[in-house]
Amino acid sequence: MEDISEVITRIIKKRKLGEDSKKIAKTAIKHPKVQAFLAQNKERLNKEIVQVSLPTIFNYVEQIESPNPVMEGYTPKLFLNGKVIDITYVPTEAKLNSEAKKRAENRIELIDLPAKLRHVELANVDATPERENALNEVAMFLAEFKKNKHIKGLYLTGDFGVGKTYILAGVANAIARQGSRVVFLHVPSFIASLGSHFQDNSLNDEIDRIASAPVLIFDDIGAETLSEWSRDDVLGVILQKRMDNVLPTFFSSNITMDGLNEHFAETRNSVDEVKARRLMERVRFLSKEVFVGGKNRRN
């Protein structure tokens, strides 16, 4: 280990400081973070350990006050390494938060929705009076979801552009932060693209994968054009499996649950109110209807 005077003299020359080594050493020892470390470890430290570790302490203070860009995202930390004080490097809080955010975003699978929805956080959602009830319901869901992964989701209904999808994007992010995978799909686009799975016979696997997702969000349900097949053998199968396993499911729609019942009854070639009611039983079992008001923010 280098002598403290050599270390300090070298840094004095590098930084062109007009101070002597003893004065700088005393300043380093008095640094609040050094004092905190010494206080926390006073039962294990003695004068000899501190004296021999002065170069390390000085380097530590230098790195605190003049961070090296190469070490961005990490901060030095003192620790007792046998009979000497040494330095380790730990991630900063900002880096930990950034990495947690990236991991959460990777747990969100978007199907036919813009990638920017991965970055929406509930803290950034305007808490207007018209959204208060919906945001309260969201908060209650998230609190309960921490304890129970098999609970009812929400059915957000309201006019165009009031922020239903945006709120659900924040919900997806919050759920992903808790460690759960979320599938977030745009229903009209998903239904329209079902034919693409016929070529490789992957449709059943895709339906099963979506039906089994720990959390599923149906965006803009009720705006799709349905056939009897897409209603009964796709949506019906997904909703049935989710109901059987009590998997949290969310919906956004411009129409109420009663309106969705009417939508499900009418397909391209027929009207079947019985099958529509059967499907709606699953929707009502899986979610609670919540109105979202406000102005159209797209205009």
Automatic annotation (TrEMBL):
InterPro entries: DnaI_N, IstB_ATP-bd, P-loop_NTPase. SUPFAM superfamilies: P-loop containing nucleoside triphosphate hydrolases (SSF52540). One of its GO terms (biological process) is DNA replication. Residues 1-89 form the Primosomal DnaI N-terminal domain. Coiled coil: none annotated. Residues 96-293 form the IstB-like ATP-binding domain. One of its GO terms (molecular function) is ATP binding. CDD domains: AAA. It comes from the Bacteria. This is Primosomal protein DnaI.
